[in-house]
Amino acid sequence: MPAATQVIKTQVGIVGGGPAGLMLSHLLSRAGIASIVIEKRDHETIRHTHRAGILEAGSVKMLTESGVDGRVLTEGHRHDGIDLRFNGTSHRLDFQDLVGESVWLYAQNEVFVDLAAARKRDGGDVRFSVTDTEVLDLETDVPKMRFTDPAGQRFEVQADFIVGADGSQGMCKRAIPAEKRSDHFIAYPFAWFGILVEAPPSAPELIYANSEHGFALISQRNDHVQRMYFQCDPGEDAAAWSDEAIWAELQRRVDGPDGFTLKRGPIFEKMVLPFRSYVCEPLRHGNMFLAGDAGHTVPPTGAKGLNLALADVRVLFEALGQFYATGSPELLDGYSDTALERVWKAQNFSFWMTTMLHSREDQTSFERKRILGELAGVASSRYGQQYLAEAYTGWPHS
Ligand code: DHB
Fold first, then answer.
1. Among residues 41, 194, 359, 373, which one has the fewest Cβ atoms lying within 10 Å of its Cβ?
2. Measured from the CB, is residue 231 less than 6 Å from ligand 1?
């Protein structure tokens, strides 16, 4: 006979132990607010899930000022600009000069490792490898989440609030009845082929390259490991590509009269990343709030995903903090609108960077030339550069 369901009470039940869920739990604990985080994947799987690697200045501050760990400053790298490359020529955008800000190159999976370590250090309740997760009674004063732990024990968490931070494939947003939410969605006719390679950096900063053969992004991880991407077909089979074919494809997208040549090395990871733009509106149902990819997804160009998730968490944390300190639901009631304002700015930026840098198979000569005009318009104008620099480094947090 299965053991009886064990009931646990807490203040905030968080579905999803990625950076958004862990950061929220971390901030809440510092404010004396109890939470439980449940996550279906195990720690090692998340640690090895490679995502983007650019943190806005505001995201870095959230990590350092909340006492997560200083690793982002010691092992991450500050980047003061990027190269926009088109027609085979690089145009540097100097973020410090343009907007007085920088970004940090620090991989998302390292952010996860730091946050998980901080929760462990501070005695946080984070349960990995749970199964059969459900959220229920969301419109009541005691919303709940249920799950089974790896030993087979069934639990029910009774909370004041549930937070859905369970990523783009998560179940929380699907728990909102279809007639109570709007799904804003677009698909793109391409994807990214991403590699990790053992080699020194090819350039001091990131290169976002538009070429007639499609987009390429030359990114980095550290002095010995680099991250690169090139635009590909969504149905591409990563395993079918030889290293030789990958290098040839990347190189022809950055070729130019300056003779820029990528530094090659063994490729130890190949993957195809899907592209889509999605927003669920509102980011709330009853006493459940959505944060991060659980409520919205951006295409990777510009690396806004994790940064937006942390921005949601900041707004939600302040709202929960106000509620527990004063009993006022005012900020909680404004959470969805406040968070979505930044989300839509980032949706526009990610869409804009994507369409300006990628090419489509059915592209007319007019469209190709128009895009080059757009890139020239940005690169040759301080105002154009400033818009890109401000969005890339992250709009100020209120
Ligand atoms: C990386 C990914 C991005 O989408 C981006 O815009 C910049 C960097 C990265 O993985 O390094």
1. 373
2. no
